[in-house]
Amino acid sequence: MNASLTSQRERIARLNDLARRAMGVACTAVATVGFRSLPDADQSCVRELIETFDAFDEDNDPHGERDFGTIYQLADGRWATERPRLREDERERVFWKLDYYDRQMEFASDDAANPAITRRVLTIMLSDEY
To answer: How far apart are CA 64 and CA 61, in angstroms?
Structure first.
């Protein structure tokens, strides 16, 4: 991979980390109806896990931009970033993803690595709403 592309992806990843950690300030955060139907305590826990998310791997981050992740509700009600080994140990699955728009929020950004021309939108949704 050429150095310029690597450098651009690294800038995007850093901006995405900032967006997650400063949800609502460094990005616009939106949640789907399904996610908003969860109890407030669950929503709060999921948001905290998104802000601190570091479980990136080749499956959820193939381009190294740290723009997507999954949070799992375990059978006992706890939320975690690690996928349970058995499907029956999972109660709910929440996806979060970042998208990049121009400053007017009309079109895709021409350069997601440039915060002067890009607005980030972080969407939180139940997996079955994807």
So the answer is: 5
Buried b / exposed e over 10-38, threshold 16 CB at 10 Å, is ebbbebbeebbeebeebbbbebeeebeeb
Structural domain boundaries in the chain:
3-129
Q: What are the tens digits of pLDDT across the range 17-75?
A: 999 999 988 999 999 999 999 999 999 999 999 999 999 999 889 999 999 999 999 99
pLDDT at residue 112 greater than cutoff 60: yes
Residue 73, both tokens? 């509700």
* Rounded distance between C-alpha atoms, residue 48 and residue 17, angstroms: 13
Task: State yes or no: pLDDT of 5 exceeds 80.
Answer: no
At 78 the three-state DSSP class reads coil
Q: Cα dist. 116→21, 65, 71, 92 in Å?
A: 19, 18, 30, 37
Answer yes or no: are the C-beta atoms of 100 and 120 closer than 8 Å. Answer: yes
Q: Is the dihedral of CA 55, 20, 89, 58 positive or negative?
A: negative
